[in-house]
Design a protein that fits this description.
Oligomer: single chain
Largest sheet: 8 strands, mixed
Radius of gyration: 20 Å
Distance between the termini: 33 Å
Number of domains: 2
CATH class of the largest domain: Alpha Beta
CATH architecture of the largest domain: 2-Layer Sandwich
Order of helices and strands: HHEEEHEEHEHEHEHEHHEHEEEE
Number of strands: 14
Helix content: 25-40%
Structural class: alpha+beta
Shape: globular
Number of helices: 10
Length: 345
Amino acid sequence: MENTLGLEIIEVVEQAAIASAKWMGKGEKNTADQVAVEAMRERMNKIYMRGRIVIGEGERDDAPMLYIGEEVGICTQEDAKSYCNPDELIEIDIAVDPCEGTNLVAYGQNGSMAVLAIAEKGGLFAAPDFYMKKLAAPPAAKGKVDINKSATENLKILAECLDRSIEELVVVVMKRERHDDLIKEIREAGARVRLISDGDVSAAISCAFAGTNIHALMGIGAAPEGVISAAAMRCLGGHFQGQLIYDPAVVKTGLIGESRESNLERLKSMNINDPDKVYDVDELASGETVLFAACGITPGVLMEGVRFFHKGARTQSLVISSQSKTARFVDTIHMFDQPQYIQLR
């Protein structure tokens, strides 16, 4: 699957990032999202595959979406029988967030990117558009920290695993009212907190790379993005756990369904019979082969954002594979309409 789709999925996230970056700083978050969606859909429909979106985007904000259940790829087109060989057909599940951090793009802030994860059919957890309690940590702490433990306990374990003092640890937490107590506990334990306004996929993945100065992600964020984060962490050998949050009183910002009871009913309808189950990376991204791809829209810890020059652009992407056990940083120059010069840096 990697050999067939590797380069193509890079181009999918690149095209989404370029389209969205043109709206950077213009205060139009829905437009930045919409153009990323359209660019991602257009490029995916040129790939020789039969893909199904299992995690889409936009439902929560009533924004444009690649909707759950949508089929993408050349072999989903009406005349597919004329050029698609069923014996060599690749059927995959896809999780997408064409513009992760729409507010970051709209207001010209760091950390937004176009992301997707793919696996063979049935290889990604079809998370509802709820919230998820998350814990991400470096590979050295995999299976040792635990989402059921307190932040203080996990920081002690993490410090031992990394041979650091707690005071040397940095924990990323999304700046939300629901996290006030968590932030207080982390600080009282002695660790430092890096607050973010949006975009926790990048923060989760950064935990797996030494040198990012991010050692853990804690707190509650969107469940679909949790699956995408888990796919990357599965490939990188990092620690990731997620637990669905279905009670609006916990997140304090409202949920699809707007009541605990209706959300529980929705989970049952999705055959999720244990709503409090804690999922690890192998359950959230269970596929035999998992691929993750991201392209920076605005500058971030892992990647540069899109940089435009006259009749061209430069992008930086990250592609991670469980098959080849690689993490590739791809630097690409895109030439539009015969540029008169190519910007190297």
